[in-house]
Each structure stands twice: as structure tokens, then as C-alpha cells.
Amino acid sequence: MAEMLQTLSDYRSRLDAAVTAFSLFIRDLCPEAQLEISFVRYEEEDAHIWISLPGSLTEEERERVANRVAEHSLDLLIREGVLVLAGVEDV
Q: Taking the model in full, what pTM does it have?
């Protein structure tokens, strides 16, 4: 039982660190972005980040941010084994 609790604790620590790093990555891309983070699990997903970008960004800038976020999400899954889905909300 203690081993299972340790494993759950380790998982949560890794997930917290991954989501924090991902959030900072998004902030570096767009400091004005508003983030909403959820740790509610759906199917195989470990966490979600919804991103609201400022209306002042052009469509090309929005697309660039969305593409970088998608790439980072995939890199995180491969590197850390956690699936954090992130999406840019439509204007």
C-alpha cells in the first residue's frame, strides 16, 4: 500500500512539474495570455490547459502560438509520459 501511495505521489509531483513548466513555456510565447488549468482526468489525459490569447494578436500570431503549444504538448508526452492537452480558444 505504501508503494502505491509513493507511486501516486511521484506521479502527481511529475505532473505538477510538467504543467508548471508548460505554463511557463506558454507565458514565454505570449505573456498576455490567460490560462485555465484543470487536473480533471478524461480518458487518458492527465491535465488540460485552455489558453485565451489577447484579441490584439493577428491570425498568423495566434496560429504560431497554437502550433508551438501543440508541438510542446507532444514533446511533453514523449519526454515525460504525461498527456497535457492545451488548446487556444477561438476569438
A: 0.87
